[in-house]
Amino acid sequence: MKLAAIDIGSNSIKLVVVEAETSDTFTVLAQEREVVRLGQETLVNGHINDAAMLRATTCLKRFVVVAEAKGAEKIAAIATASVREANNADEFIRTVEEETGLRVEVLSGLEEARLIGLAASKGCTEKGVTSLNIDIGGGSTEISIFRDGEPLKLVSTKLGAVGLTDRFIRSDPPAPGELDALRSEIRVSLERAANELREQKWDQTTATSGTALAISAALNRAAIVDLPELKRLNAKIAALSLADRRNVAGLSPQRADIIVAGGIVLEEVMGALGIESLRFCDWSLREGVIIDRLRAWERSQ
Q1: What pLDDT digit, counting tens, does each position of 120-145 carry?
Q2: Could you give the CA distance from residue 251 to residue 151 in angstroms, rounded to a whole number?
Q3: How far is CA 187 from each of CA 110, 132, 181, 182, 195, rounded to the nearest angstrom?
Q4: What is the pLDDT confidence band of residue 250, given thresholds at 50, 70 and 90?
Q5: Are 26 and 19 in contact (CB under 8 A)?
Q6: Structural domains in the chain?
């Protein structure tokens, strides 16, 4: 069976096409990613503007062509924080279906955490190991604890690299007061979730999605980062102008404007949960959707 998943995120839209025999075994046929910034202004104003909607539908049309060219029999399209926070989400969903034929499912924060955690648990964690995963997106941060592919704890917070950048960072490079306000917002937002998560136990920590992979790239594609190393990197990057951040080796120029906020979210989550080090994982929401849909398909046979 060939299946495609499209993740309509706040920063980028991502596609994966796979060929699968079971939910545990599949081969990736194609992967695509395009920075669309659906969350820019949307996460602050609560409204998807016409320009963002056009960028999204244009991208989705292209992804449908790619998926169909690879023989995808089904395409699952899911949307996250930007769409679930928008007051015109229904208009967006209707426009996408009219323009592309895709029926978009808007995930709740907890369902997003479950699917991402499922992917990290299956793709980057050994069997029998309890793992905590941190996923920093453009509009939200999801934290999950899994064991053997099953969730033990799911948390979603409205802390995302795009939304926080829009709200707090005005200067170039960011002013110390802006960074202090950003950290304060993150700590307040994390307080309740951190208390609940610390009641759990886990053996391993992973981090998924764009911010985590960008940090890995900036650290010479490191597989693991410890908290002191992350703090040094964040301080270095926050002191640079946007132009200089775009020239940091390994860091995508398209992520340079939001990496400060994203990196600080990761640092604060690690600090709040007492995490000394974590491993980067390149499976995330798309793969979680694929695994979940294949499981449902298996159950229906």
Answers
A1: 999 999 989 999 999 999 999 999 99
A2: 32
A3: 20, 19, 10, 9, 12
A4: confident
A5: yes
A6: 2-106 (3.30.420.40), 110-280 (3.30.420.150)
